[in-house]
Each structure stands twice: as structure tokens, then as C-alpha cells.
């Protein structure tokens, strides 16, 4: 995998800004005005240095339109995914595993708080004083909808004041970086150095190139450099950028053509599973004789595929078109339920409502080949991620990997 390392904390301050304590009629709830996180009950993980892996933990930040969060895993136990601690505050009866994507700046444009803390603090301000504070809510889509996005594009706060969008996003990314690091260190029995953390930021596939470039620049402003892994529907493309100093422009060092390891591989695995259950000859015949019904079946699978995730315990129901059930009975002289029993495939069951029930194990089997191919593609890439020459000459620490996800 790519060697991603922890950014230098000295680079995290936006140029020209100094740290100051915001003044307010209310008292900030932590040093940087954020709601403290509830102590985690997760066991502490001992992080040991690994010769083949220069990082000890991977932290992924999901920067969403309405809510944001992060998750991390230690390379020593990569199967154990640690979600962001539940936030104190928030809405009653709602699981607060993520934080609202809202940011509050002081009247002198200093960072005050993010998420529930920003929202609650702003709402508690006296209306007259609130006019001087800068509150940004659901600002992510601004960079997608702006056709002429540049580094000087501005976002307008609720009070009408404007701030460069790049600074708003950098504040948010820095916030998650600091809190993710704190939580990681709390769960590690050894002292983690900055170079032991690899950072991941998700980038929506629907974004145009200027928006993706904007997020890269925001990450750099927050103290990071990066590799881009574009995981699309058909291929996985790798690109390595270097930030040219002092002008701050990007130079493309490597562009690796994508391997055929995109999300369509999950669809092919599902088709192979159907062939195993109902017979390859039947599936091929059905695709030719009932093409519209086959498309409907794959659309139904696509919808359920998007809801699959490793922590989901309940089965996913895939609706079989009536024409599939009828055609199988005509073609084979038996029901699809009988075919399932005969296949002895325990991880796929039949519902009396006419649906295939795919257990968590079944979904894992469908995703696993594609995931393994992506990992191998990165590992065997001609981009010399692991070479010392690459680390020291081309990408001195830190840098980051940005993952673009497209499941069709």
C-alpha cells in the first residue's frame, strides 16, 4: 500500500493567523471550543513498529454535506475498525456517531468550534452578538455547484460576511485531524509519532475536477500531501502529485492507468453467484430472452449493494423479478426455492416474499475479490511508494491518499 504519514503539526496553521482565545458571553467547552468526546471503552492497542509497513494506523475522514466523521484502524489489527467516538450533545434520540458539518469562526475570523458545539454555541448567542460571529452550515456542496471555483472563491456566513472557502475547509479538516489523533493516541499503549499515521479523505465521484482539486489544496493547507486513488465503477487509477514550492502549484509525478478493479467487479461476483445457484446456462439464457428483467434484477442489486457495509448484521433482500421466477420454473421445471436448497449455499436464503436474502457473509464474498484486486493494484503499482528515494526526494513526509468512490 502507499506510504502515508502524519503531517507536521507545525504546518497546520493557516498563513497569517495566530492562535487566540475567542471572547464570548458563553464559555467554550474545551481548549478550542469544541465538545469533548466521550471516553472510549475500546481496548488500548499496542502499536509495534513493522518493517514492511511504515505506518501504524490508518485514519479515514468522511467529510459530508450534512454530517462528517472519521474512522481508523491499527495495522496490527486491521480488521478492527474504530468509529469516531459518540459526540456529547446533539439531538435526543439520534445516534451521534457523526458531527454536523457546520463551522463557527469568531468575529476576528479565528476558529472557534465545529459540529454540535458550533451549532449549539451559535444558537445560544444573543441575537445581536450573533451578528458578529461567522457561522457556516452545509457548506460542502458550494464547491461542487460553483462552476468557476478558484482558490479565491468565498463562502458566505449566516451574517453575510465572506471568507475564502479554502480556509473554511482547512479549518474543518484540521479539526478532524486533531481529534482523530487524540483518539488514536488514547487507544494506543505506545507513543505514536507523526510519521506513523496514514490519512485518507473521501472525494465524491460526482464532483468536477475543480472541486476535487480544491479539496486537495484544503488538505495541503491543513498540513498534508497526498496520493490520489480514484476507485471508479470500472477501473482504479493512481495519481501522485507533488506541491511545487514556493508557488504552491501541483506537479503530476506519476499517472498509473487503472486496473479493471472497479465496482463492476462486485456485479460480476453477484452474477457468478447466481450462476452457481441456478446454473450458468439458465442465467445466460435469461439475459438473452428477458433482457429488461435482467436489467431490473441488476438495478435491484445495485440499490442493495450501496447499503452494504462491514458492520451490517442483517441480511440484504434482493427482489427477483416475477419473470425470473416464472422463466426458471418453465426452464427447469422447479421453483427457485428448490434451486437454492439444491445448491447448498447456506449464505443465500429464500424469502416467501419472492426475494433472495444475502447474509453478511454473502455480501463480504461478493466484495472481497474486488477489494483484494484494488489492494494488489496499489501494491504492485510501478509508482515506487515504498522506496526510500521516493520518500526522501519526491514526497518528504507528510502526504495523504484521497479516495474517490463511484459505485456505478
UniProtKB/TrEMBL annotation:
Where do the record's region annotations for Disordered lie?
Answer: 1-41
The alphabetical list of record keywords is: Stress response
Q: Matching SUPFAM superfamilies, A to Z?
A: Actin-like ATPase domain
Whether Cytoplasm counts among this entry's keywords is no
- List the InterPro entries: ATPase_NBD
What's this protein's name?
Answer: Heat shock protein 12B
Amino acid at each position: 500500500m502507499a506510504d502515508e504519514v502524519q503531517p507536521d503539526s507545525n504546518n497546520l496553521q493557516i498563513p497569517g493567523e495566530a492562535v487566540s482565545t475567542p471572547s464570548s458571553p458563553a464559555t467554550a467547552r474545551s481548549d478550542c471550543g469544541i465538545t469533548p468526546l466521550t471516553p472510549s471503552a475500546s481496548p488500548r492497542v499496542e502499536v509495534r513498529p513493522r518493517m514492511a509497513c511504515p505506518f501504524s494506523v490508518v485514519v479515514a475522514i468522511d467529510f459530508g454535506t450534512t454530517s462528517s466523521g472519521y474512522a481508523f484502524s491499527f495495522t496490527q489489527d486491521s480488521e478492527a475498525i474504530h468509529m469516531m467516538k459518540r459526540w456529547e450533545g446533539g439531538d435526543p434520540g439520534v445516534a451521534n456517531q457523526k458531527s454536523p458539518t457546520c463551522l463557527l469562526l469568531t468575529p476576528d475570523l479565528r476558529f472557534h468550534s465545529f459540529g454540535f458545539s458550533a451549532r449549539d454555541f451559535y444558537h445560544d448567542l444573543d441575537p445581536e452578538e450573533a451578528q458578529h460571529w461567522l457561522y457556516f452550515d452545509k457548506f460542502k456542496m458550494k464547491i461542487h455547484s460553483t462552476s468557476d471555483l478558484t482558490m479565491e472563491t468565498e463562502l458566505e456566513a449566516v451574517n453575510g460576511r465572506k471568507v475564502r472557502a479554502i480556509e473554511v475547509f482547512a479549518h474543518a479538516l484540521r479539526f478532524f485531524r486533531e481529534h482523530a489523533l487524540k483518539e488514536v493516541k488514547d487507544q494506543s499503549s505506545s507513543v505514536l509519532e507523526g510519521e506513523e499515521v496514514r490519512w485518507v479523505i473521501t472525494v465524491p465521484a460526482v464532483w468536477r475536477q475543480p472541486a476535487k482539486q480544491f479539496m486537495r489544496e484544503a488538505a495541503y493547507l491543513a498540513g498534508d500531501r497526498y496520493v490520489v486513488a480514484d476507485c471508479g465503477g470500472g477501473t482504479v487509477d493512481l495519481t501522485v502529485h507533488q506541491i511545487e514550492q514556493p508557488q504552491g502549484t501541483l506537479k503530476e509525478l506519476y499517472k498509473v492507468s487503472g486496473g479493471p478493479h472497479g465496482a463492476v467487479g462486485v456485479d460480476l461476483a453477484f452474477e457468478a453467484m447466481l450462476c452457481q445457484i441456478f446454473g450458468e446456462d439458465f442465467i445466460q439464457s435469461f439475459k438473452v430472452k428477458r433482457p429488461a428483467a435482467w436489467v431490473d434484477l441488476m438495478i435491484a442489486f445495485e440499490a442493495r449493494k450501496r447499503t452494504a457495509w462491514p458492520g451490517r448484521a442483517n441480511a440484504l433482500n434482493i427482489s427477483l423479478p416475477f419473470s425470473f421466477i416464472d422463466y426458471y420454473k418453465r426452464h427447469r421445471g422447479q421453483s427457485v426455492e428448490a434451486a437454492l436448497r439444491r445448491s447448498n449455499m447456506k449464505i443465500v436464503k429464500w424469502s416467501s416474499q419472492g426475494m433472495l436474502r444475502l447474509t453478511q457473509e454473502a455480501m463480504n464474498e461478493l466484495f472481497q475479490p474486488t477489494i483484494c484486486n484494488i489492494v494488489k493494484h496499489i501494491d504492485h503499482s510501478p509508482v515506487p511508494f515504498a522506496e526510500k528515494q521516493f520518500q526522501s526526494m519526491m514526497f518528504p513526509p507528510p502526504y495523504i491518499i484521497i479516495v474517490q468512490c463511484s459505485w456505478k
